Amino acid sequence: MSWLVTGGAGYIGSHVVRAFRAQGIDTVVVDDLSSGRRAFVPEGVPFVEGSILDGSLLERAMAEHDVVGVVHLAGFKYAGVSVQRPLHTYQQNVTGTATLLGAMEATRVDRIVFSSSAAVYGTPDVDLVTEDTPKHPESPYGESKLIGEWLLADQGRATGLRHTSLRYFNVVGSGTDEVFDPSPHNLFPLVFDALLAGRTPRINGVDYPTPDGTCVRDYIHVADLADAHVAAARRLDAAEPLEAVYNLGSGDGVSVGEIMREVAEVTGIDFRPEHGPRREGDPARIVASGELAARDLDWRMRHSLSEMVASAWAARRAASGD
Questions:
Q1: Alpha-carbon distance 200 to 48, whole Å?
Q2: How far, in Å, CA of 192 to CA of 267, rounded?
């Protein structure tokens, strides 16, 4: 028996695969490599190259590898870009999720952990977001993730699908030098790429209604995130009760300006970031409580901000051969 990890060749997905292996749980990866990397999949893990839009491929993978559950991470994950590419975003994230659920029903796979997002909240009018905070997504990406949660809930009512959705916040760091975040849109890779190229990193937006004018976010370590997926899968396997959604938040916000200062400290590279305009779809502040996840999924922040930056920097330098 194994768990299927869609998007398992990605930065987050490959950490999830490693977390499952560390707990002795077999996995199989499906990834179309549009943003993932084959080299990120650990040796010995079965790999199926293909899209979640291909229902027949998913059914074959589930049948051939005796899949009992799915961790669904595959999708188009860039909030800002989704504003310019809404149809692509909905195809990948909504049609893709519906296709996956259809393949699961056809093969009688009855449990799923879904990669959702803090983007479902938009710009909350509360200091600390909880799972019950009203949802007002401000981008097609956030909307697509909320629809994904609805699809799971509807399928659960219709077929008895056991499910939970984990709402991610800003995922950073690395659990191994073999895997780094290669995204062209995320903060850490943008800053590191600039430094390695001898350029000055840039902050997008310094006029937000926050203490230093830059966006405030929860930053969580990718290895902590991956462990939460294993805990959720184990509870689903045991048919133990789970909430429909969990925030994987730290309870503490860190601004982009503070991140820049920590990067300078950790890397030893003294710089003052350039200032650019806001990115569309970026809310000013999102900080969330992780109390429910702490109660049910042993969720906690096991890494400091300094450790997040240092591990991400080490993995990025290893990738560039430095």
A1: 39
A2: 9
Tell me how far CA of residue 170 lies from CA of 118, 240, 274, in angstroms.
9, 28, 21
Catalytic residue set:
141
Residue 184 Cα to chain centre, angstroms: 15
pLDDT digits (tens, 9 = 90+) for 6-37: 999 999 999 999 999 999 999 999 999 999 99
CA distance 145 to 129: 17
Rounded CA-CA distance 137/156 in Å is: 23
CB count within 10 Å of CB 157 equals 9
Predicted model pTM: 0.95
Which pair of tokens denotes residue 16? 């999830």
**Domains along the chain with CATH numbers:** 2-171+219-247 (3.40.50.720), 173-217+250-320 (3.90.25.10)
d(CA 98, CA 6): 13
